[in-house]
Amino acid sequence: MPGLINAHTHIYSGLARGLSIRGHDPGNFYEVLDGMWWNIDRHLDLESTRASAYCTVVDCLKMGVTTIFDHHAGYGSIRGSLAAIAEVTRELGIRASLCYEVSDRDGEEKALDSIAENAEFIEWAQREDSDMIRAMFGGHALFTISDKTFERMAAANNGRAGFHIHVSEGMNDVYDSLRNYGRRPVQRLQDHGILGEKTILGHCIHLNTAEMEIIRETNTAVVNNPQSNMGNAVGCSPVLQMISKGILVGLGTDAYTHDMIESAKTVLGIQRHNSCLPNVAWCEAVDMLFRNNPLLCARHFHKPLGVLRPGAAADIAVFDYRPFTPFSDENVDGHILFGFQGRRCIHTVVDGRVLVKDRELAQADEEAINARVMESAKRLWHALNG
Fold it and tell me: What per-residue confidence (pLDDT) applies to 35?
């Protein structure tokens, strides 16, 4: 099948698998962010950022993912972090769109550094003009971004790239916008010129119909991350409503997993559960992965991605799947939703290069990578619990 696309993930969480931070027992979404993810990213240096990129990219490639849209945060070492990640993506061969998560949560100086990190990386990526590495302008949730910072972001970007930003993932986004600005989150984004064809809004769980209309009218893309939303107990995104209104809704993982097949399966389950209807979301779940994600990529990359046809990028994933029921073009979607797993991938090709062959990295020393990542993980965990 075509190489899979993850339209929203976080490399910076790569070293967190199995991690327990002493005393961290979150009772709400803000405590999840502050006690876990912001705590981790404040301890990342450039080496642990590289290690996070290595383990994330290796996992993606071994599950047939050939393109990622990453949203990075590493407030322990901001400047040069996107270049460090880009070095790893180039070394391992995956396609990537990168940005840095601007936020006021750690003060004005770091917010300015994160704005500069985005602006300089966009300038570099535009000079390179490579279809293997693209740049966006990142932003965290609106409740951590002031109007002044939004103005600085828009000025620094100067229309050069789309924005990649978290929107209404938790109700605190909505409460903060209404209380402090008298506007709902999507209205704030519109006020600051953040919306548009090249912008990606992550999550979009707590939207009203007026906000959906703004997203549709501005041709802005939304990316759903169902497993992460369930894990953080923040709610179910109105995916079916958005798609019915003509909004382009892609599929990501928020780094909860790197298995895009599992993410599509979860869309089916959570949308049916939320709707109390057992006959919805089948087509939408499959389309988000195999139709909408390629359409989203077309807004950022030159060559067609996520399709197998002449002229498209040579990004291919080969899966070991031996059906025990009839299998054809008429029911392949049912086999994918109920029979496939990312771990069934045996070969991955990106831009014509065989990067995974017989389930092993073909162009890199996985054992050496694992050893390097393990050392960084131990160092990070010690810092968090020392």
Answer: 95
Q: Are 82 and 56 within 8 A, CB to CB?
A: no
Average pLDDT over residues 71-96: 97
Above pLDDT 70, what percent of the chain? 100
Band of residue 84 on the pLDDT scale cut at 50, 70, 90: very high
How far is 332 from 326, CA to CA, in rounded Å?
Answer: 10
Average pLDDT, the chain: 97
User: What pLDDT does residue 386 have?
Assistant: 79
Give the type of residue at 311: G
**Is pLDDT above 90 for 14?**
yes
Rounded to 5 degrees, what are φ and ψ at 223? -125, 125
How many other CB atoms are there within 10 angstroms of residue 129's CB atom? 9
Tokens encoding 217 = 């009218």
Tokens 């080969």 found at: 318
Cα(205)–Cα(232) distance, integer angstroms: 12
Sorted by sequence, the CB contacts under 8 Å of residue 261 that are 6+ apart come out as 4, 63, 289, 336, 340, 341, 342
169: burial class by Cβ within 10 Å (0-12, 13-18, 19+)?
buried
Show the tokens assigned to 167.
Answer: 């929107």
The pair of three-digit structure tokens given for residue 322, joined into one six-digit string: 């031996």
Picking from 196, 219, 216, 198, the residue whose alpha carbon sits closest to that of residue 207 is 216
The half-sphere exposure of 237 on its side-chain side, counting CA atoms within 13 A, is 31
Best CA proximity match to 195, nearest among 240, 121, 115, 139 = 139
Instruction: For residues 169 and 249, give the distance between their C-alpha atoms in angstroms, rounded to a whole number.
Output: 15
